[in-house]
């Protein structure tokens, strides 16, 4: 494992035609449509969690598509926004897992990100009001590469795989070096199919401690 590598080192090789096609498409779309998140927030997951700091990867789908909810971190919203239903279920499971009754006053997960929880959406942008509208513009190529590179260069990372879209990424992860915890998506439509009661948060911390890494303070948000 090389702990001196940065995202710049890792992603410099992704300066390819497909990536520039995505960026050029977004520049044109932003001139005539509302796209979330803003261009300054689009790569927040990479800015807040350095490559060397990654301990946990949570894979989301595409960003929230309502007004200013998305800010570049999977499942997270800025502090002044209502907590979305999926995140409410994540908080519900957290309290159940650790037998707490903690009150979460906001849905901003930046503190998780700075502790080494890489909150990666597989699609990094979306048109306002149109879920999965950017599903086919090339983001999957990019994020598949990101997951593959994490798998290749790191070891003992805990991948939290929630829902069918995330499960499609399992073949990118070397299970001889890493841990995969799988269950249903935390959305109200599927949380009861396994997410609620999965205890992924305490299991993650046990794995981190086993490898002499600091556990995540899931309640320190």
Any chance you could write out the topology, listing elements then pairs?
Blueprint: H1 7-11, H2 17-32, E1 35-36, H3 44-48, E2 56-60, H4 85-97, H5 110-114, E3 117-121, E4 126-127, H6 139-153, E5 158-162, H7 164-167, E6 179-183, H8 200-210
Parallel strand pairs: 2-3, 2-5, 5-6
Antiparallel strand pairs: 1-4
How would you characterize the overall build of this protein?
This protein has 221 residues and is of the alpha/beta class. The chain has a single domain (7-211), classed as Uracil-DNA Glycosylase, subunit E (3-Layer(aba) Sandwich), CATH 3.40.470. It has eight helices and six strands; from the N terminus they run ααβαβααββαβαβα. It has helices at 7-11, 17-32, 44-48, 85-97, 110-114, 139-153, 164-167, 200-210; strands at 35-36, 56-60, 117-121, 126-127, 158-162, 179-183. Strand 5, helix 7 (164-167) and strand 6 form a beta-alpha-beta unit. This is Uracil-DNA glycosylase. Excises uracil residues from the DNA which can arise as a result of misincorporation of dUMP residues by DNA polymerase or due to deamination of cytosine.
Number of domains: 1
- Report the portion of residues in β strands: 5-15%
The count of DSSP E runs of length 2 or more, i.e. the number of strands, is: 6
The CATH topology corresponds to Uracil-DNA Glycosylase, subunit E
Overall form: globular
Contiguous low-pLDDT stretches (5 residues minimum) are none
Q: Regarding CATH, which class?
A: Alpha Beta
Along the chain, the helix and strand elements come as: HHEHEHHEEHEHEH
Query: What do we call the CATH homologous superfamily?
Result: Uracil-DNA glycosylase-like domain
CATH architecture: 3-Layer(aba) Sandwich
In helices, the fraction of residues equals 25-40%
Structural class: alpha/beta
Radius of gyration: 17 Å
- Number of DSSP helical runs: 8
Order of strands in the sheet with the most strands? 3-2-5-6
């Amino acid at each position: 494992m090389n702990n001196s590598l940065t995202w710049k080192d890792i992603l410099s090789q992704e300066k390819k035609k497909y990536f520039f096609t995505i960026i050029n498409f977004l520049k044109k779309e932003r001139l005539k449509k509302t796209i979330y998140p803003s261009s300054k927030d689009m790569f927040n997951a990479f800015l807040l969690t350095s490559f060397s700091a990654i301990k946990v990867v949570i894979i989301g789908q595409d960003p929230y598509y309502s007004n200013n909810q998305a800010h570049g971190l999977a499942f997270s919203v800025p502090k002044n926004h209502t907590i979305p239903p999926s995140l409410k279920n994540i908080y519900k499971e957290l309290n159940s897992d650790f037998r707490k009754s903690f009150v979460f006053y906001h849905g901003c997960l930046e503190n998780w990100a700075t502790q080494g929880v890489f909150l990666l959406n597989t699609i990094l942008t979306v048109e306002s009001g149109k879920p999965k509208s950017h599903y086919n513009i090339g983001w999957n190529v990019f994020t598949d590469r990101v997951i593959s590179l994490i798998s290749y260069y790191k070891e003992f990372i805990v991948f939290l795989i929630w829902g069918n879209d995330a499960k499609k990424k399992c073949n990118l992860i070397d299970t001889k070096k890493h841990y995969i915890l799988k269950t249903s998506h935390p959305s109200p439509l599927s949380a009861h199919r396994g997410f609620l009661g999965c205890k992924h948060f305490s299991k993650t911390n046990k794995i981190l401690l086993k490898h002499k890494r600091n556990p995540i303070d899931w309640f320190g948000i």
